[in-house]
Amino acid sequence: QVQLVESGGGLVQAGDSLTLSCAASGRTFSSYTMGWFRQAPGKEREFVAAISWSGGTTHYADSVKGRFTISRVNAKNTVYLQMNSLKPEDTAVYYCAADRSFVIHTTKGNYDYWGQGTQVTVSS
């Protein structure tokens, strides 16, 4: 069982940066693939980024590639999402998720545990 708690969301202006954190409980954090998803009002929850258990492999949605960076510190049971050059269309609730497999997945159905989400609002 893994519990995930996101933090770091807020209201920023277009072009600003923001870093989200996701703190995980449990001693097996380092064995999970971790992902970030987001959900805007009236839209489906969509994949943003994922990172392998070692941190050696990452994958991004095309919409954030080059602007967002996912990273993890297993010793701190924490995964991060650095978001640069934010756009109004990045406005959403951002969710952290954990996947027990060693394969990076981009579909939400493959993830086993979810956080409660943190709101990111980007004004134009």
Please specify the SSE layout and strand pairing.
Blueprint: E1 4-7, E2 10-13, E3 18-24, E4 33-39, E5 46-51, E6 58-60, E7 68-73, E8 78-83, E9 92-99, E10 113-114, E11 118-123
Textual characterization of the structure:
This protein has 124 residues and is an all-beta fold. It has no helices and eleven strands. Strands 2, 4, 5, 6, 9, 10 and 11 form a seven-stranded mixed beta sheet that branches. It has a four-stranded antiparallel beta sheet with strand order 1-3-8-7, with no helix packed on it. Strand 7 and strand 8 form a beta hairpin. The radius of gyration is 13 Å and the shape is globular. The mean pLDDT is 96.
Task: Kindly summarize this structure in a few lines.
The chain is an all-beta fold and 124 residues long. The chain is built from no helices and eleven strands.
